[in-house]
Amino acid sequence: MIVIYQFYNSNIVRKLLFTIPLIAVFFILLTEAIEIEDNPAETTSFKGVITAWLVNEEGVTEAYRQTPNLVVTLGENTVSDLIFPDINFNANATDSKYDVLHIGTGSTAPVDANTGIETLIGGSCLRLRDATVTGTASTGGNGAEIMIQVDFLGNNCPGTITEAAAFNDLFDGEILARQTFAGLAVGAGDTLTVQYNFTINDDGI
Fold it and tell me: Considering the entire predicted model, what is its pTM?
């Protein structure tokens, strides 16, 4: 009995009896933290792809480009203004919806601070409006998809086109997205079709 009493009253045993519950609590908290990380809050993304193809006067496709676009800061702020009342992130009280595209010859890669086309062609190469913006509603899996598409005629926009952007006005307004790509040499009889596809999607699990 004396041996058993001395064993239970030894410093080592008392330390173990104190430490084991603490270790158990630690593992319980760690398990809960892992479970929380495995179930993150849902996040929403707004991104897309620009596609451009060149068709000659015989109707033959001569060149094709496709690359992800960059939704710029001004575009994010304007979309927020269009969705929610009582805010004005872009300092424009009369925002319009996006349905306009423009092209240019700038080659500097897009950045969040972009507010327009880098290098305008000038003359009669103006911004063009898509008369009917099309799309597919979200089904909870693939997200909502929106497409803006216009045709630029070589007679109005000749040159080597290397950039495109989406806007919400034919003459002023705010940019939504911009991207550069390998040059497309547009001749007088050619047609350059530019298509912007945007996806609003839930990236959560």
Answer: 0.77
